[in-house]
Each structure stands twice: as C-alpha cells, then as structure tokens.
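Researcher: Batch entry, complex prediction.
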Amino acid sequence: MSQFFFFLTAIIAVAGAIGVVTLRNPFYSVLSLVCHLFALAGLFLLLQAEFVAFAQVVVYAGAVMVLYVFVVGYVGGDDETVHPWDGPAQKGIAFVFAGMLFLELCLAILGSGLKALDTRGAGFVPGFGSPGDIGELLLTKFLFAFEAASVLLLVAAVGAVVLARRRGGIHDEEQRLSFTEFMRPIGTGTTAEGVGTRDAGINLPAPAAPAAPRSDRETLPTGGERP
Amino acid sequence: MNWFVVVSAMIFCIGGAGVITRRSPLVTLLCLELMLNAGNLALIAFSRMWGNEEGQIFAIIVMVVAACEVTVGLGVIVAMYRRRLPIDVDDMRELHG
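Model: Structure tokens for the complex:
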C-alpha cells in the first residue's frame, strides 16, 4: 500500500517537474508546479513529516504560487521569444548535462555505502514530525535559525516593496512638466519669441527652465492678459 | 528509502535542465523552486532514515529562504516590466540601474 502511494506520488511529482520545464506558457508552468508541490507533500507524508507536508501545501502551493500567478498575470504570460542563436544544440546540451548529473548523483548516493539506505528507516517515536515536536525543536534547539529566518523574511518583504513600487517622484515630475508645457503660450522658446514677432500682447518671461515650474505657473495669469 | 533519494535527484536534474534551457526569468525562478524542493525531499528522506527531526527543521528553513528568493525575484521582474525592459534573461546582461 505504501509502495503504491509512493509510486503514484513520485510519478505525479516527476511529471509535474517535466511539465514546468517543457510547457511554453509560463501560466501552465505555474499550474504544473502546483501539481508537483501537492505530490511532493504526499511524499513528505509518506516520510512521516506531517508538519512539513502541511506547510508545503499552505505556504508553497497556497501563498507563493498565488504570488506567481499574480505576477504572470501582470507581466503577461507570453510565450517565449525565439532567438536566432538557440537551436536544438542548446537544449541537447542541457539534457545531456542533466542526464549526466542524474547518473552521477545516483552513483554517488547508491555507492556511498550508507547502511540505512536500504532499510525502511530507523524506528521513531509516535509523535515523529508532528507540529508539537517540530515547534519544540524550532523554539529550543534551533531558535537562532528561527529568528534569522524571520529577519530574512522581513528584509525580503521590504526589499520587494522597494524594488517593485511605482517611482512616485519621477512620475509626478513628468506630469507637472507636461502640464506647464501645455499652458505655455504658443511660440515660447522659438526664434519668433526672441525677435518679438510672436504676439505683441503676450510678453511673458520665457519659462525656459523646466526645473522651476512653480514660478512659471505664478506668472502665467498676470502676464497673459492683453492690455 | 533508496527510491526517495533517486526521485529527489531526478527532480533536481529536471530543475537544472530547466534553468539552463528556459529564457523567461519567471520560469527560471520556477525551476529554481524545483531544485530547492528536491533538496527538501532529500533532507526529509535522510531525516526519516536517521530517525531524528532536525532534517525537517532544515527543510522548513529552506522553504523560508525559497519564499524570500521568490519575493525578491518577482519584485525584480515587476520592476523590469515597469521600465519596459525585455523580460528575457539573455537580453539582460548588464547591471544598470
């Protein structure tokens, strides 16, 4: 029974991983990764890691993947552009590399002579991997790692906000400049203005400096009136 | 117990191949997630093998680090999109602000 579930979840997990790599549309890749994560949570359950499986489903498949879906929807899940220089050679090299890496890892793991690899695992107490046990370890033995992880999360959240925010200052400046340009009388800054043939009624101080739009706006209503 | 580690190695290699071949930074991040998850699976398998729970703590910390990485990476992608830069890892070769 346990073997049946192992092969079921393992096949789903590997198929999901292959789907992430091969599907062209990023949105389908994200959905495939969600499928992969659920199967992986099943594998964790088979390994008696209840709390980690739960966290995997809630945090990964829930929160992180929602973030991904939002960003894919925002950026636009376009298919990738094809460059002239990438042919089948790059993909071939990549898959050969992956296959060699897999063989090497398998050889390294199975040839490592770890005695426990062939067994069904050590014995465990009934509460193994339960939230209580994990929480106790996390708040006693691994307290420093816990705190460091929380600081890291805070820094990452602040960093993401700083990176992705709208540049407020720049946009305001652009809008104000375009507004004053719109309000300027016709011919400002041209040769006609210098010669004095633009319009005899309008004698404005030329608002040439775009860095001072405020003074420009103040002089506009008084100077713009015809005598 | 062998098979869990073999599956983990397989997922890791698939993720590595994806990081090499795909060009959209979104999918590259997804493949990085795959590799981190493969590491998690190996950690938990070894934790079960030795019968102590410290490997599971490691896996949780790895999850936190992956979440941070995703947050910052997606922030960078959104910033690239805002500045009308190409969403393509091969076109972005220089570090300019």
